[in-house]
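fwd from M.: "can u put these together and see what the complex looks like"

so here's what she sent:
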Amino acid sequence: MKTFTLAIRETLAAEMRRDPAVFLMGEDIGAYGGAFGVTQGLLAEFGPGRVRDTPISEQALVGTAIGAAAAGLRPVVEIMFMDFITLAVDQLANLAAKLHYIYQIPCPLVVRAPTGGGRGYGATHSQTLERLFTGIPGLRIAAPSDAADASGLLQTAMRGANPVLFLEHKLLYPLRWKLGEKLPPPVPFGHARITHSGDRVTLIAWSYMAHLCLAAAHQLAAAGINAEVVDLRTLAPLDTETLVAAARKTGRVLIVEEGPVTGGFGAEIATRIFEAAYDSLDAPIRRLAGPDCPIPASKVLEAACIPSIAAIVAAARELAESTN
Amino acid sequence: MDDWVCYERMVLIRCFEEAVERLFSEGRIMGTAHVCIGQEAVAVGIAAALKPGDALTSTHRGHGHFLAVGADPGRMMAEMFGKATGYSRGRGGSQMMADTALGFYGANGITAGSMAFACGLALEAQQRRTGRVVVCIIGDGAANEGLFHESLNLAALWCLPLVVVCENNRYAMSTPVAAGLANTRLAERGAAYGIPGCAVDGNVVADVRAAVETALTRARAGSGPSLVECETYRLSGHSKGDPRIYRSTAEEADAWQREPIRRLEAQMLAAPGSDPARFAACRTRAEQAIAAAIRFAEASPAPDPATVTEGVFAPD
């Protein structure tokens, strides 16, 4: 059994052993091991030149990584909380995403970002902000929901030639999965995964919400409702084909997303399905997401902002049983 | 580069920029451009100080920097015309061209936007011990961006082989330095990071070159970054269509008295045995080179619209 954290740490270490161009940058990733402990022990093995503690300068640390990538190194940046990536959006949107298109300079950069709520950290340490980047061509976005995908997608990200935003949900870090001694195989981008097969209703999610959808599917199955669960794995590129096929299969689609409903990536998914499969839909596409408010710190208020297994089950059930 | 090579490059830059202004006024090119008329000595002084293998990052006002390190005026002009033969195949325009073979890692449309990027180039040089030094050119406006502080702090902290050259052309678009900088002595910012900061007359190519060479030598020796402020003057508007109502014609006329090309010319003429006809011939050659660049650009094919999404990602 390995945690999500260990799967990522082992993958970072394996890639660093394999390729001397790989190095890590981030705030408190050295002796401290990162705010969530992901890089624990790596400083001891690889030294301060390859496990670089940086000042609290998100813009400079991301920009420096972009420059190092442009010169042929393979930086992996840790943004301590994804909320702080707002400080580096310019560098990602205006530089990393455009280097190859405009200048034909490859930018093999990985930006790891712990995302999401559920730990009571409050409004500036709990957001899922992939929506800021899904509309910026030139960036890839990976959002694993289990340890094998975390490793497999990270391997692909670290061996590629493009900037990748790698989302690590904080609630996934301590969870355990069965994984062998060896690293799982790399997972190609743009291939969604059906984690549960069903014919009554299709649940679509990514990152921690895909994990919750799988749990919800087990509960639904016990109640006699078979749900098809699609884990996107990557938001960019987006595997529209698998989404549409899964929507056609059940005719009923529930998209589950952690952030506020307005402007969320769920809207893009819904539109793609509607454009390609409206004639197969037996009910309006439904979105289960957060309300349009910042994430509060209080446990009860925070819980009101994030879809739960119970909420997913209830929404899926309602959708499966609706007559349209 | 001897005085003549410097002079030729400065005149080539001047002719290129004058042509760009003319082409805009004639409606032959579109979009926008920021020309560097009056600032040619900064570009050429830096280029003269660089060694093969060194790298350079530039600003939104980057034509001169690129030409100074040897860019092909034809491919630059083709980019201005949005043609497939341009440095960025028509995707970049005036503000976004690069040629890494020349060590030129790109002009950049975001003020201060290349500063951390330059730190990254320098970090690669440091980690792989390539001996490369990176020169990051910024303008006075960039000094007020947060990235200026973050980048200089990081560069100093990590002792990166970096030279930041601030082209202080007195204006951030229409805002004079005195209205944008609490302390207009930009070079003093170096002290905040414990690195050398010096100010030179940016209209004297030899002074720019000497200051940058000193900084490069220090960086190459592993002693870390420096800040070099080059005091110059943007003789044209910020971009095409700038009416320059925020400053007086008297001020501009005064600045023209100190423009760098005539100053270098005067200095070279004062040398014994100089031939005045050589200067005119140099100007003619530059004009011919720019005319040829324009012909190349106009005769070049437009990019195929069907290719517009090609290259968003590099082949993995």
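replying to her w this: Residues 2-177 of chain A form a domain with the Rossmann fold fold (CATH 3.40.50.970).
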